[in-house]
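Render this sequence as a predicted structure.
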Amino acid sequence: MLRKADVVDGALKLLDAEGIDGLTMRRLGAALNVQGSALYRHFPNKEALLDALADRIVDGLGDPLPEADWRRQLYVLGDRMRSAMLAHRDGARVVGGTFAPGLNTMRGADRAITALCTAGLAPAQAGWLAFALFYYVLGHVIEEQALAELPAGDTWRQRIEKLDAEMSTHHSAALAALTGADPGERFRYGLQVFIDGVAQQIDRAES
């Protein structure tokens, strides 16, 4: 008998093979060798399936964090979320396209909020900053994966360079660094700047 977990497993395999645009209920049914009605017994529509798929992608996000200060814990959490989404084709688009959070998402948020509250923030501010962290990671990975999906021979660099001719010299220097840097290096830099900014907020709250 087809279980709900089997449907999500099959959807994840189809996502990795075809991407989110190729993930349809019809194709999923064919891949699982079942009629569409068997899928709809578990998920009333594709949106419900994507909600479950998003939560599967971030499985492990709420695992225990290392015994360290809150800065290191936030860094590990951000890096963990990025790795989880990069592990699957269009992973960030799936996660970013859902609103109702699942258990794994909530556990990850709980880890971030707990770390920030331990650092001295009130729960409201900790919640806002936890989701600001997740939005940063999500946006960065969406861009990373979109670039990876460009067809061979795409002329995006030439298009950017043509537009850059109308910009300032500062922009040109920044663009060269942006397009030439390793995405992981750019991500880690931004993540550290975010954490440093949070530390300043905490220092001001304590003064």
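Summary. The longest helix spans residues 123-148. DSSP finds eleven helices and no strands in the chain.
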